Amino acid sequence: MTNELLKELKEKNNDFIYEFTLPSNGKFEVPEYPKTFRMRIPKVKDEKAYLIKLSQIEDFNEAFAFIISRVTDIKNPEILLPIDRDFILLQIKKSYDGEKIKTIIQDDKGHYNEITVDLSKIEIPKIKKKIPLEYEVELPVSGIKVKMKTMVLKDYISAGRFFNNLQEKDVLTRAYITLAESILSFTTSEGKVYEIDNLYDKYLIIQELQGVDKRALIEGKEPFLPLIKIPVEYTCRVCGTHYNVELGVADVAPF
């Protein structure tokens, strides 16, 4: 009897029953890039496999790639844009836990609160223009022109692995290492081109920029690629402070 039920459950929900169009919707200029994907219903064993993978690897983006390839028909998730990665993680979460979920959030005073998030009300940005493989940002103070690439999941994985091998483990260092990963070359105002392969060298160059140039570089990074944001409004149960904050998809998904 137990074996029959187990067999029935194993055979159930293994088909790709959901089909979605990715937010990039064919706008990324890569021939093999998917426009749509199919997904099966995630199971408890998928959550377990994801958490085990997360405990074994150096960067959470590797775990994202793992679960996407496990429950969807996308077998090369490393090529995904951030907005498409987040969209898929969001669908996994909604399919597994439902549209209304509970999560724990920490405020700026260190207080923890349990909040409810309605995933059905999240607005998915629409991309209307073509997404280039490369683009250029000019820094206003130094006059340096920085050639940058549009980052995909494999680039975030690479930056994460590099960061985890550094002694500096702060959030800003991780952000600048990720920014450095997107840089292909520097061209000075005199026209001299520096193509630098070493990620740490590019990170060191970023550290030498003035604040205005640093901000221009950050704000100029993939201006054509919006992120999926989760607006949350709540009142702290400890101090009574009212908050309006934005979470990222990775704060609540995939499990």
Largest sheet: 4 strands, antiparallel
What is the radius of gyration computed over CA atoms, rounded to a whole number of angstroms?
Answer: 21 Å
- Report the count of strand segments: 10
Task: Using the alpha-carbon principal axes, give the shape.
Answer: globular
Which sequence of SSEs, written as H and E, runs from N to C?
Answer: HEEHHHEEEEHHEEHHEE
Proportion in β-strands: 15-25%
Q: Helix fraction?
A: 25-40%
Number of domains: 2
Helix count?
Answer: 8
Low-confidence stretches: none
Question: Which structural class matches the secondary elements?
Answer: alpha+beta
Average pLDDT across residues? 93
Cα distance, first to last residue?
31 Å
What spatial order of strands do you see in the largest sheet?
A: 5-6-7-8
Descriptive account of the structure:
The protein is of the alpha+beta class and 255 residues long. It folds into two domains: 11-126 and 226-251, no CATH class; 134-219, rbstp2171, CATH 3.30.2220. Helix content is 36%, strand content 21%. It has eight helices and ten strands. The protein has a four-stranded antiparallel beta sheet. A two-stranded antiparallel ribbon has the order 1-2. A hairpin with a 5-residue loop joins strand 3 and strand 4. Helix 3 (60-71) packs across helix 4. The longest helix is centred in the middle third of the chain and has 16 residues, at 82-97. The chain starts with a helix and ends in a 7-residue tail after the last strand. The mean pLDDT is 93.
